[in-house]
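Good morning C.,

I know you're traveling, so I'll keep this short. The sequence:
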Amino acid sequence: MRSVILGTAIVAAAATGVLGQQGRFRAEVDLVNVAVMVMDKQGNFISDLQPDDFALFEDGAPQQVTHFLRGDTDADALNLRLGLLLDTSGSMQEDIGLARTAAIRFLKALPEAHDVTLVDFDTEVRVARYGLADLPRLIERIRTRKTDGWTALYDAMGIYLDGIHGLDGRKILVVYTDGGDTRSAQTFTDILDMLKASDVIVYGIGFLQHQPTSVRSEQKLRLQQLADVTGGQTFFPTSSKALVQVFDQIVAQVRAQYSLGFVSSNITPDGTWRRVEVKLTPTHLLALRVRSRKGYYAPLKELPPTAFPTRPRSQ
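The C-alpha cells, ready to paste straight into the viewer:
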C-alpha cells in the first residue's frame, strides 16, 4: 500500500502537470479506448452485443474497432481499478455517515477489483492505494474519518487523475461529496479538461439535502457535468435504502460496459479535442440507447527546443 498526504499547494502543482499531458487514453500506444453503455427503453442494460454490432466515428469519420472487451470478462483481463473520492470536509457533517456506508457497500459489491485508490479530502488531500489483501484496513480508514475543514474537491480529483494516469485497465471513480468546493487551486474548468484527457469513468454520489438552497442547483449541475463528460452518471440518494438501488445500478453498469479500442485514422499529433460517436448498426438494435465518452485529446507532438543564437564573445 502506498500512502501520501498532500496539502492544496502540492496538489495544485501535481494536477497542473496533468493538464500538459494532452494525450491518449493509454500513454504507451496510440490506442484510444471508449467505454460504452447500451440500454433499452426501460433502462435495462444490454450486455451480450458483439463487435460487429457497433460503428465508431471520430469527428464524423468511421474508425475500425480493433479491441473489444465486455464488463463481464474475466477479472484478470478486465483489470478493474476502483477509485473512491470521499469528502470529509465540515460541510459533510450531517451526511458523512451515509457517505461512509455508501463507500463501504460499493467496495463489497465489486470484489473483483484489481486495486482500490482512496482519496479522502477536506482542506488537505490524502491518497492511498490498496490491494485486495488490504481491504480491511481500507474499510477501517473509511469508518474512522472525521469531518472538518474546507473542501478541496477539485484538487482531490486532480491528484487522483495524476496518480492513475498511465496505468492500464478499466478505471472507475466514485465520488462521494456535496459538490461544493471552497479551497482548491484547480478550477472546475481545469478538472473538466483533465477528465477529457483521461480514460476514467466517473460516478457521482451527491449528498445535497443539507446544502443551502442557494447553491444546491449549481452543485448538482457541476457533479452531473463531471460524470457526463466521462460517460458516467450521477445519483442523489437521501437514505440507505436509496443507496442500495444506486449501487445495484452502478455495479450493473460496470459489468455491462463495453470497451471499444481503435487507432485513429487521423495521425496528425496536434493535441486537439476529437469528438467520438458510437452507434449500433443492425436495424433491430436501433431502438436501444447508447451512452459513451464524448471524445478524447489527440497526441501532441513535442516541439524541439528553441535554438537561441549565441552572442559572439567580446574581444
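Safe travels,
E.
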